[in-house]
Design a protein that fits this description.
Low-confidence stretches: none
Distance between the termini: 21 Å
Largest sheet: none
Order of helices and strands: HHH
Mean pLDDT: 85
Oligomer: single chain
Shape: elongated
Strand content: under 5%
Length: 105
């Protein structure tokens, strides 16, 4: 989930934050004294992304109804459905210029 953000051109403000001394020392050791701000900015963006994802998951909770999908109750059911989708793709792509590449390559 790590998204690299380019913050060089973003408008910035100077702010003071309080962090534990041992944390500050660990950050300095890990990234060096001239890269602490960038490290903390990236860490904050990543934390915000995790919070947004957790909120989205909470909001979507209950969206799946087993009653609406009785044919997808077990892992075997889901695997069978995925295989059928992949077969449909193979059939659709026959005769096209698209090469069938095995998964993971």
């Amino acid at each position: 989930m790590c998204t690299i953000r380019r913050t060089i051109k973003m408008k910035k403000i100077r702010t003071n934050i309080l962090i534990p001394v041992d944390l500050a020392e660990e950050i300095r050791k890990a990234v060096g004294p001239r890269k602490r701000s960038s490290f903390l900015v990236e860490a904050a963006w990543e934390k915000l992304e995790r919070i947004k994802l957790a909120d989205a998951l909470k909001e979507a909770a209950g969206a799946w109804s087993s009653e609406l999908y009785p044919d997808l109750q077990t892992q075997d059911d889901i695997n069978r459905w995925l295989r059928s989708l992949r077969e449909q793709d193979k059939d659709r792509l026959k005769g096209s210029d698209v090469e069938d590449v095995p998964a993971g390559q």
